[in-house]
Structure formats: structure tokens, C-alpha cells
């Protein structure tokens, strides 16, 4: 078994982004009892990213005073799930106070999710709730979880009646301190910078088809591809943008590798901002990062529009959880470049 045979947590990026845009109300701290999320296991291995995702989902469902434990509980696989749950409850009682939650996502290479387990223990070390979901269970069959985020969402939905929670995907779901921490860690701009970006985008829209724009060669893996820049520029010109040219030289930006796509996205955005601020110029800059999953599979399309002085105007990400990405006939580099052009055109209209 590989370390993480289940798919990576790409959807954590969307969750963090949604939680940090200020559309929901702040979670009220009315619950005096801490809810400690112990490290989520993915195929037997602790995953800090999955643990963060579960914590944010709980906050969005209305849980308050949520914390993430650094320590991991790894059950004895030779014992029955009921005995494993009791062992976790005893473990959690020794490690801290409050209610403790444990999630165990089981899977195998090439098959995805086999089983989703959850245990909730009280501060006295008693198991107050546990679940074991797999094929044949109505909740599992309805959800058909194929990746970790779907498993975690399934667990939170099972916990709703137990903890008096609401739908974490409802409109205006509350944000909480954990989401704010993830925002800062991921590099997602704060509210002031998001407002500044919105103002820059409005100014770019005012220029319309006269927006002066240079397309730098998109990055694909470790290479920058000039022919893909020509493709993007051609699509923009076909849409009526008259002042579009292709740069001969790439902007050698860097992105921080991470299972959290927001960290990848915004680290690249900050790298581009620094490079363009030093380079200067009179044109807006369009950069595209075609993110590979594995050696040759396009996993995401990150698109960046910057002011001549380097200020971020618009940052966009698309992956297989987004409708526009899913609509691609084939997730090839050329299709990704075309998607970046269409996303920008839609935003500028």
C-alpha cells in the first residue's frame, strides 16, 4: 500500500477559499466544551491536511471551539472496530479534555475509498458515537465518496443530529478561527487585499478590449511553453482584444508544493507579484500555471492577471471539482491553456 492511495485533498482549497471570503457570519463561541479533532488517517497514515479540512467543515456546520490535535491515534488493525473505538476514547481521555473526534478513511490503490469510520468520545473516555460506513450502507451508497473530502463531508453529515449541527455546505455557513488560520497559512489574501483586487479588476474591465496585455509562456511542470502563450493570445484576439502580445521570456515564478491547492495557488501568485514588481512595464500580465498530477495528467489550471506594477488583479483556479474543468474533452495542456483564456474573457466581460 502506498502512503496515500486515496486522491489528494484538492477540494480543501475550495473549502478554505469559500470560508475566507467573508460571505458567512462568524461562528459564535457559545459552546464551552472543546471539540478536538485528532489526526485523520488516510489509508493508515496521519494527514494534517485532512484534519484541517474536517475541522473547517465542523466550523461551517456550526460547531464552535474546534481544535486540531497534533498527536495521532493509530488503531490496532487486528481488533474489531468497537474495540478500536474504546481504545481511542481511552487514548483521548489521557491526551486532553473535551470531546474528541477520530476519523479513519480506509482505501486501497486503484480502488479509492473502501470504508469510512468515525468515533466521538467524551472527556470521561466514553464512546458516545461511532460509525462504520461502507458499500451497502445507505448513507455511503448515497454519497458514493470517491475522495477524502467527500468522506469527511459524509462524516459531518452523520454527526449533524449527534452534535446539533447544520449543513456545512449551506449558503452563508459561518466561518471560524480555524478557517482564518488556514487562510493565513495558505496565503489567501485578507479582506483588504481582496477589495483592492476587486478595484483593480473593475479598472481593467473599464479598458475593455483596449486592455494592454502581455501573455507570458505558461508553466507546465518545470518548463514554460511559448506555443501555449500563442494559443492563449489568439483566443483573446479572436474575442476582440486588440492590444495583446506574447512575451518571448517567461516569468520564472515558483509555487510551493502542497496537497492544499490554495497554498500552491497563492504561493505562485505572490511569486509572480514580486517578479513583475521588479520587472515593471506598461501592460497587464497574464500568467498560467498548468499543474500536473503525476507525470503527465493535467490536474489543475491556475490563472493570474497582474497590473503592470505587479499588483494582483485576478487569480483563478480550476480542477476536476469545477464544472468548466470537467467539461474539457481531454485534460491536455492545450485544453488547459484554452480554459485559462476563456475564464479570463468571462471575468473581463
Query: Would you count the extended β strands for me?
Result: 14
Shape: elongated
Q: What separation lies between the terminal Cα atoms?
A: 48 Å
Write down the domain tally.
Answer: 2
Beta-strand portion reads: 15-25%
SSE order, one letter for each helix or strand: HEEEHEHEEEHHHHEEEHEHEEEHH
CATH topology call of the largest domain? Rossmann fold
Number of helices: 11
Helix proportion: 25-40%
CATH class of the largest domain, named Alpha Beta
Helical/strand content category: alpha/beta
Summarize the main sheet.
7 strands, mixed
Regions with pLDDT < 50 over 5+ consecutive residues?
Answer: 1-31
Radius of gyration computed on alpha carbons:
22 Å
The CATH superfamily of the largest domain turns out to be B12-dependent dehydatase associated subunit
Nearest-integer average pLDDT? 87
Provide the CATH architecture of the largest domain.
3-Layer(aba) Sandwich
Amino acid at each position: 500500500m502506498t502512503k496515500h492511495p486515496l486522491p489528494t485533498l484538492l477540494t480543501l482549497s475550495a473549502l478554505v477559499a469559500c470560508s475566507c471570503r467573508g460571505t458567512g457570519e462568524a461562528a459564535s463561541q457559545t459552546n464551552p466544551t472543546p471539540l478536538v479533532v485528532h489526526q485523520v488517517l488516510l489509508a493508515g497514515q496521519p494527514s494534517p491536511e485532512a484534519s484541517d479540512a474536517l475541522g473547517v467543515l465542523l466550523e461551517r456546520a456550526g460547531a464552535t471551539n474546534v481544535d486540531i490535535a497534533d498527536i495521532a491515534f493509530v488503531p490496532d488493525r487486528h481488533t474489531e472496530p468497537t474495540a478500536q473505538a474504546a481504545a481511542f476514547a481511552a487514548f483521548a481521555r489521557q491526551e486532553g479534555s473535551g470531546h474528541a473526534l477520530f476519523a479513519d478513511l480506509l482505501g486501497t490503490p486503484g480502488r479509492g475509498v473502501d470504508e469510512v469510520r468515525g468515533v466521538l468520545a467524551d472527556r470521561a473516555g466514553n464512546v458516545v458515537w461511532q460509525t462504520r460506513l461502507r458499500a451497502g450502507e445507505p448513507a455511503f451508497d448515497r454519497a458514493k465518496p470517491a475522495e477524502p473530502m467527500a468522506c469527511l463531508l459524509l462524516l459531518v453529515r452523520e454527526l449533524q443530529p449527534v452534535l446539533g449541527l447544520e449543513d456545512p455546505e449551506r449558503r452563508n455557513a459561518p466561518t471560524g478561527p480555524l478557517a482564518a488560520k488556514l487562510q493565513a497559512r495558505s496565503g489567501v489574501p485578507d479582506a483588504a487585499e481582496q477589495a483592492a483586487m476587486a478595484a483593480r479588476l473593475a479598472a481593467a474591465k473599464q479598458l475593455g478590449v483596449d486592455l494592454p496585455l502581455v501573455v507570458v509562456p505558461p508553466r507546465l511542470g518545470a518548463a514554460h511553453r511559448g506555443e501555449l502563450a500563442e494559443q492563449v493570445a489568439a483566443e483573446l484576439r479572436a474575442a476582440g482584444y486588440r492590444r495583446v502580445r506574447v512575451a518571448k521570456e517567461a516569468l520564472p515564478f515558483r509555487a510551493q508544493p502542497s496537497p492544499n491547492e490554495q497554498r500552491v495557488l497563492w504561493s505562485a501568485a505572490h511569486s509572480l507579484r514580486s517578479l513583475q514588481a521588479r520587472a515593471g512595464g506598461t501592460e497587464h500580465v497574464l500568467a498560467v500555471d498548468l499543474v500536473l498530477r503525476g507525470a503527465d495528467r493535467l490536474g489543475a489550471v491556475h490563472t493570474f492577471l497582474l497590473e503592470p506594477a505587479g499588483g494582483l488583479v485576478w487569480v483563478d483556479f480550476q480542477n476536476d471539482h469545477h464544472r468548466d474543468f470537467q467539461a474539457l474533452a481531454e485534460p491536455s495542456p492545450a485544453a488547459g491553456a484554452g480554459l485559462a483564456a476563456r475564464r479570463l474573457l468571462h471575468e473581463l466581460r
